[in-house]
Amino acid sequence: MKDAVAILCGGGPAPGMNTVVGSVSKVFLRNGWKVLGLHGGYSGLFSKDARTEDIDFLYADDIFNKGGSALKMSRFKPKDSDFENNFNLDLFVKNNVKLLVTVGGDDTASTANRIAKFLEDKGHPIKNIHVPKTIDNDLPLPEGSPTFGYQSAKEAGVAICNTVYEDARTSENWFIVSAMGRSAGHLAAGIGTGCHFSMIIIPEMFDRTEITVSKIVNLVVSAMIKRSIMGIPYGAAIVSEGVFHVLSDEEIKNSGITFSYDDHGHPELGKVSKAHIFNEMVENKLKELGMTIKTRPVEVGYEVRCVRPIGFDLVYCSQLGNGVYKLYQQGATGCMVSVDPKGDVSPLYLKDLQGPDGKIPPRLVDIHGQSAQTWIKDMLQYVTKDDYEAAKKYVSNPEEYDFNKILNW
Questions:
Q1: Using one digit for the tens of pLDDT, what is the confidence trace for 317-376?
Q2: Are 204 and 212 in contact (CB under 8 A)?
Q3: Which of 27, 296, 373, 405 to pair with 204, CA 20 to 30 A apart?
Q4: Which domain CATH number covers 67?
Q5: In the annotation, is 136 catalytic?
Q6: pLDDT over threshold 60, residue 152
Q7: Burial track 255-266 (b if 16+ CB lie within 10 A, e otherwise)
Q8: Same domain for 174 and 236?
Q9: What is the pTM of this model?
Q10: Which domain, by its residues, includes 346?
Q11: Is the domain of 267 the same as that of 284?
């Protein structure tokens, strides 16, 4: 029986999933392996009725440049009891699986290590290699290496938001955009700078002060005041959803927005549009100030996760897929594959990335680095001390909308 490689995709989708799976499949098929695709993420490995796909060259060739994921995904994370009671050992034994390739985030990677250890204990040792993905670009890969899917998601977000900005100019309205990014603001910053938005708000900007509803709102209003001083009656602001997830429950309750709450009394943030919430907050503030500015919300989230990968990710994900085979040949296991800007492949081990708490700390935007400071100082528009006198036409207390004071910079 041929040696087999099993491939699964965990978590949420990102552009390039199929490119990775197709590339892994092609290189292993070329070298005489059987390739087994697993649907449903890890759920299939903990069920007797696993949905599998025998991947041949035609299947791999058909999917490699498409968006979404041909191998269906899930966020299933097995408990310790699942290993003893539900693990599908026959799937590995009967198919002669020698390598498990996982595509996903750090949770997907750590679960792969647990599976490899379990199989070794059961007398069926395998190797496991992980391909890290997220459109958030927040995994701590080597300098200059993005997470795959980020560039394609940013491209799709820029296409949407360029249209939004054109609408703002045409209708002389303001748009409040929310972009994905739970821990870091790379996607919001990339989209906002690509579209020359008037204001960008990401969690990293609050490195010297607590994130509050009033500070988020006042940053948007600061841009509105500055544009009004300039005689420009329109604009757009983009806010990373991450700033919302950092807010305390008390801050959220005081926001003036009505939420549903879970059994523990926490607001159910995953069920609501962050753009709608930010927009309502800004509208309430504008009414309080007596400023007649129309605002509209736009959510940039699920729309960018399954787009067709752009050229960058088609090349990058192909390199990652081929890198899996290279690492396997070198005997690597329990690692993530990394490809640097020169195309060199190397293994990254979770233990080298994890912090003292065992979790992988997110790669944040270097907010005081030259790149970020360029768009903050040269592109964004906001109230400074030099604008106080002109700003009094719109607000009685312009210092409260001073960008640097709000952030304690």
A1: 999 999 999 999 999 999 999 999 999 999 998 888 887 877 788 899 999 999 999 999
A2: no
A3: 296
A4: 3.40.50.450
A5: yes
A6: yes
A7: bebebeeeeeee
A8: yes
A9: 0.92
A10: 4-148+309-353
A11: yes
Q: In terms of domains, do 111 and 199 share one?
A: no
Q: What is the structure's pLDDT at 44?
A: 86
Whether 367 maps to a domain, the answer reads no
Hunting for tokens 């960018």 — which residue is that? 304
Which residue do the tokens 């679960």 mark? Answer: 111
List, for residues 36-76, the tens digit of each pLDDT value: 999 999 998 998 889 999 999 999 999 999 999 999 999 89
Q: Which of 106, 136, 138, 402 is catalytic?
A: 136
187 has pLDDT over 70: yes
